[in-house]
Amino acid sequence: MERTALVTGASSGIGKATAQLLAARGYRVLGTSRRPDVVVEEVEFLRLDLTDAGSIEALGERLRTVDILVNNAGESQSGPFEELPGEALRRLFQVNVLGPVRLSQLAVPGMRARGYGRIVMVGSMLASFPLAYRSSYVASKAAIKGFAAGARHEFSPFGVWLTTVEPGSIRTGINERRTNYVAPDSPHRRDFETMLAALDRNERAGLTPDKVAEVIVKAIESPRPKRMYAVGSNAPLVFALRRVMPSGLAEKLTHRRHQLPR
What we know:
This protein is an alpha/beta fold. 46% of the residues lie in helices and 16% in strands. The chain contains 9 helices and 9 strands.
């Protein structure tokens, strides 16, 4: 049976790699972009702007026909907690949380009726290893992980599985599109810029998007996908250590990796 997959943010990075891998494995692939004139071989593009509720609802009919939804599109944001603008926070949560949740709500009825479905939330390892000056991004990825973990048992009896894939440092170029908020005279400025420089270095040295795509497809093709998969930043080792080390030590090691004095 030919399965139909919809991958958001499929014009670049992890989304593009996932769409291409699914197409190569015989899936019918729909991709979304704010610019639907993007060309990726064997991927049909649809317009989607996650900041626009109307744009999301316009995909309702197509979403009822998909068997697989990969919620990949998102925004990266950094800034000292006290300096994050309210409007920027609202946009971030609309793009990273509320938009993907609504897309999933629109897709679930069709999946349940057909007795098969996979919904993958592309999160971040920062949801498991929080980092200073990334609190808004951490919170948004923790929220989407919570939605998937909480809802998965509602739908697994119908053959519909929700799961989260947490990438670590991946070479997607997202550092060039990250929104940063810090005041010129901020008391946090030195540490903030130190963290950003380390974050950018880690991402440039990270895995390619293809490696994340392989994990996403592994989750999709599993008969019973796990609650969470992690990839990059030595994920198998750091998650194993996290289970046995004190939480304070895990926090210190996360900040040391980003050259922060914690």
